[in-house]
Amino acid sequence: MAAPNSDLTGLHRVLDEGVVLPQAAQRLDTRAELWPDEVRIRVERLNLDAASFRQLVRAHTKYGETDFDAVRAEVLEIVATRGKMQNPVTGSGGMLIGTVEEVGPESPLGLHVGDRVATLVSLTLTPLVIEDALADWDGRGEQVPCDGYAILFGRSIAAVIPDDLPTELSLSVMDVCGAPALTARVVEGYAAAAGGAGPVVAVIGGGGKSGSLSLAAARRAGASRTIGVVPLDREAELLRGAALADEVVVADARNPVALRDAVAAAGGPADVTVVCVDVPGCEGGAILATAERGTVIFFSMATSFSGAALGAEGLAADVTMLVGNGYVPGHAAYALELLRSDAGVRSLFEGRLEHEATR
User: Fold this and answer.
1) What is the pLDDT of residues 19-28, one digit of tens each?
2) 172 belongs to a structural domain
3) Residue 155: which domain range?
């Protein structure tokens, strides 16, 4: 029987010496027995975050050939060693879906046995046990079929999966649902302060999951102009076809001058710049592409926040920089409604899933 002295943040699951929160811990206690405020989930699928998956693939690619068995083996090793999925290089994890297996008597989450849910907290702080050796995953995509269990704490977040959408589609959206909700909040604040005149919004990585949702959210929230920035012509073609941005430009976000000039030529500088790319080195360009007293929202786990702060100082850039922490009240419902109501968003998400299924 588990001891009753639990903590809503999950401190009782931390096996490190000293006091650290579960996200910062090197290893978590993964016992299946619940503390009174916990919930156990029977896991069906993991969704690795884009930065983590990209790093794993690169780490196991030589001479243009990727060893996907090694990708799978490393994920198994990380989970077995740490009791959670937290990429030691990127520090990031992802999220999961599954079915509620047991609910502690003091759980405040409002979940019931049998609910199919998506966790809206990171795998980097979620105790996780994989029991099938990822036998049904070939290592080639971010979505990972999986049998095992995970533990949610009293301060965790989970959402019941809607019945009207395919599971994989819901998972893809919920993985990034914090981005559009915060983008909408910031854009609405600008519009209110300006008496209704919306800001110019640039989304770097506008063709990706969080980027496409952020473009749709910015437009709905009252942006006067939306600019989508992508790195490749084929992504630009897809984004133009989705009609989510007033202008779509191709630029390498790691080249600060090229990014600045591309955004300026498309109607910038931006009052609000949203960074949704999963590669490092985009901080300087995002700052340069943003107007004085504008706002940069960093959603990428590849962001160097010290680099962003020092870069803004070195450029004498009077910009506000926000860290998208993935949580805004109501974020899951908001993102799912964007998917349902915007055909362009849905087409991009479905196309991405189809591509992952065939590669």
Assistant:
1) 899 999 999 9
2) no
3) 11-161
